[in-house]
């Protein structure tokens, strides 16, 4: 159950990062509301996952999902640049997430 909560928290981190970008510095009501609501739920799910998962594992995977997800959303939805260096960076984050998961005793 902790891994499911952690994955959901990571997905919500992607949502709040995207909606924060769309909020124009918290000047638009709907994206700002989505940002705040998904932040709260994401943090709540992360805290549930941390009841049983080690801090380093949970936090690293949560931020990794958010970082790579935001990278993908930035490219696919916002038209941000895709460069070899950015792809390598994302692959390194993914390899770190996988290694953390494999290294976890849970």
Automatic annotation (TrEMBL):
UniProt-listed SUPFAM superfamilies: Multidrug resistance efflux transporter EmrE (SSF103481)
UniProt KW Transmembrane helix keyword: yes
Keyword match Nucleotidyltransferase: no
Protein family membership: Belongs to the drug/metabolite transporter (DMT) superfamily. Small multidrug resistance (SMR) (TC 2.A.7.1) family. Gdx/SugE subfamily.
GO molecular function, one term: transmembrane transporter activity
Membrane-traversing stretches: 27-46, 58-79, 85-103
Lineage: Bacteria, Pseudomonadati, Pseudomonadota, Alphaproteobacteria, Rhodobacterales
Gene Ontology biological-process entries: xenobiotic detoxification by transmembrane export across the plasma membrane
InterPro entries, sorted: EmrE-like, Small_drug/metabolite_transptr, Small_multidrug_res
Gene of this entry: sugE
Protein name: Guanidinium exporter
Mode of membrane association: Multi-pass membrane protein
Intracellular or extracellular location(s): Cell membrane
Keywords, sorted A to Z: Cell membrane, Membrane, Transmembrane, Transmembrane helix, Transport
A Gene Ontology cellular-component term: plasma membrane
């Amino acid at each position: 159950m902790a891994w499911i909560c952690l994955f959901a928290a990571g997905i919500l981190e992607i949502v709040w990062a995207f909606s924060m970008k769309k909020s124009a510095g918290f000047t638009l009501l709907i994206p700002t509301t989505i940002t705040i609501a998904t932040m709260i739920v994401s943090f709540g799910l992360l805290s549930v996952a941390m009841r049983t998962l080690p801090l380093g594992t949970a936090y690293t995977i949560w931020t990794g999902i958010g970082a790579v997800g935001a990278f993908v959303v930035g490219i696919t939805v916002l038209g941000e640049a895709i460069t070899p260096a950015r792809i390598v960076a994302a692959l390194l984050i993914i390899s770190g997430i996988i290694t953390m998961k494999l290294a976890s005793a849970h």
